[in-house]
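Supplementary Methods S3. Complex input for the iron/sulfur cluster-bound model.
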Amino acid sequence: MTAPDPSRLVCARCAVPLSPGKVTVSYMGSSFEVELPRCPRCLRAFVPEDLALGKMAQVEQALEEK
Amino acid sequence: MPLERQRVQDLEARCIEEQPPACTAGCPIHLDVRGMTDRLRTGDMAGGFAIVARFLPFPGILSRICDHPCELVCRREEAGESVRINDLERACVDHGYKASALPRLQRAQKRRKVAVIGAGLSGMTAAQDLALKGHEVVVFEAERHALPRIRAWKRPPLPEILIETDLALATAAAVTIRIATAVGRGLDIAPDRLLTDYDAVFLAAGAKASIVLAGEFGVSRAQDGRPEIDPLTFGTSHPKLFAGGSLRYTPAVYSPITSTYDGRCAALSIDRLFQGASLVANRDGQGPYPTRLFTRTEGYPPLPALPAANPARGYSAAEAQAEAARCFPCHCLECIKVCDFLAHHGSYPKRYIREIYNNDGIVKGARKANRLVNSCSLCGLCEAVCPEHLPMGDFCLEARQSMVGQGKMQPSFHDFALQDMAFSTGEDCSLARHQPGFTKSAALFFPGCQLAGSSPDHVAAVYAHLCDRLDGGVGLLLGCCGAPARWSGREALFRDTLETLAGQWRSLGRPDVITACSSCFSLLRTHLPDMTVRSLWTTLERTGLPAGVGLPHRTAPQGAVLAIHDPCTTRHEPDVRASVRALARLKGLAVTEIGDPELTSCCGFGGLMSFVSPRVADLTLDRRAAAGSDDFLTYCAMCRDNFARRGKRALHLLDLLFDTGGDPASRADPGFSSRQENRARLRQRLLASLWGEAPEPSTDAQPAVHLADDVRDLAERRQILMTDVRAVIVHAEESGDRFLDGDSGHFLACLRPRTVTFWVEYAPCDDGYQVFGLYSHRMTVGPEGRP
Ligand code: SF4
Ligand code: SF4
Ligand code: SF4
Ligand SMILES: [Zn+2]
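Predicted complex, serialized as structure tokens:
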């Protein structure tokens, strides 16, 4: 499967294209602001696969080691 | 609950990898021979010299005339000949000499005066050592030169320039040598004057002169008149007078390295005397001793020593490099050789134990050794091969229990395995019944969660067979022994799981329990001592096999050989292993061993290794698979499935005993999702067929979900279950919360049923949904923890 291009994603509920926006991600009591593609109307965010398995997984591991 | 310091120290002390090699332990001054050969092996002559110069007070001289007791004990002897250590030292001096590598002059806190009687090797060693420490040293020598015996050396004679070069360091350190100056009453210097004018005196004038002087100093003497010398401190009965050198060990033949050793030890005592320190403390390892280092030499092809092309000139640099390469070098590392987990982390148990202990005590900051602690399969192989039987697995388990106790266990390590266990022990899978038509059970069949998950047909067939052959009723117990909880360090959860099981067993009247899984077998036996636990294999050996006993099975064609892989949990169960072999024989099968069964290795499931370090688990499996070219015959469902997953043809013993048709060795690994479904279906099926209880009709019809093989593999590797994939899709379709990819027309949706958010890329198809991708993360996204 080829990873979807976030700029080609549409929120199926609101029928609007996703656009980058600041979103809070949290784990084990720590929170960070990151920029993610999200629906400008309902604010649901999309987490791309490479982010989930890359940077996000690294941060999860680091927080778990604390 | 944290690890105990005493326990840690005891374990650390058992790993002997840091003991010196035999050569170094046998060298009176403990020259780091292995360090030297390590340098020379790479052609680093200067590096070799730096090591030689750190130990030998007179490198030019000793590298030619040392009587090298090290070579007597060099382990290379067992595979060829000893390494020519002394010749290598000479090569270091000849090809790597650098004045800058010689020891440096230190400054003493308080400069004291020392008199040395005799400028032989022991006297000069003591003089130089003390001068380098910053003391003022005067050596009195009756002859006309320092080192008279060395200058008269015959086998072969030493070049004058070599001796002078070696003495230059002593001179630079301001050792004063007063030649042609005899000490003794009526001679050049009166002994009494030395004791009053100097802070310490070292008597090293050879046996003859020293017998006279000992009398004149008035110290205690042995019958032959020699001074009595403390073997540890080289002190005499006079607190300021020390003695050593050939006078101590005559009539044994003159030994340059022993004399050097005497001088070095006396110098250490004198310096300690000046500092007001204990003369005896911490000198246990002084002098030659047999090392505790274990080194296996059997595997090395024998190699003779390399002769120098020109013996008089010694080794060339290239020759030295070749000879140094014959040094093994000596190490233990027996456990590292057999365990991919221990090898993967780049060190050895003594260091790991310390790392794990430090990790355990970290209050603030990253616990970097968490994965180390949790990657061990707890298989016990290291303990079995370790000459000191160090139980690394036990220690890793203790460290896990401590992490859990401190609330520091990383959630991502074991969540998946523990949820799988919760499913196996939950109402969908567990069952405890008497045999249909019975109100009592003499025996109770407990197949274990993995066999039920991997081949439910076998569970049904074995149960029917046991009911047929055993009297008094055979109950059935479906569930899990709690091994995943135990392995993950969750001792409380493990005890709860066991207690539930024990409760079911008691309510069935405490029948004898028959286990098909060797992990269940060993855990139940260890932790439920009231329970009589038997292995299915010993039971079947007794009851006999289903029809066709003794006939070669059709899936084992004439001439085919199977290699028996024993699960790691049978390492200490010879009876179980013997029954398995007996059953194979009953079937007329030709089987071979894969090495010593007590040294079998884990399939990666043990200790939940494959959940924490999948790569190391695969290395472990692949190494085992490569150890035998025949199809494997095993009797653990998890072992079989794991081999299958790595492409190794493997059979379960039940495949042969209870014909299920086809080519069972090529059966694919069912994976975690199917195992769960299998367990649940097995329960429903047996309830219906044996106890006549129709399952509750399921209210919500589940949509069909299709995955291509590569996507299914991905799901397994990423620990994503089909039930979760289905839940994501159902939720997305019902709520409408999903994204549409304009390029592919696929939907992307997520759901967080518990502690993990699952993302699924899918599209509707004719009879349900096709899944194209899936992944997960543990972080929550958005202010309200969405998704
Ligand atoms: S100094 Fe002598 S005994 Fe020590 S390692 Fe060298 S050759 Fe062997
Ligand atoms: S093989 Fe090497 S390390 Fe082992 S005893 Fe001989 S010189 Fe020392
Ligand atoms: S086998 Fe391993 S744990 Fe045992 S002494 Fe050797 S290096 Fe240490
Ligand atoms: Zn929206």
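The interface with chain A takes residues 365-368, 370, 410-412, 711, 736-744, 746-748, 750, 757, 759, 761, 772-773, 775-783, 785-787 of chain B (CB under 8 Å). Residues B 27, 31, 33, 56, 62, 66, 68-70, 85-86, 89, 257 surround iron/sulfur cluster (ligand 1) (CB under 6 Å).
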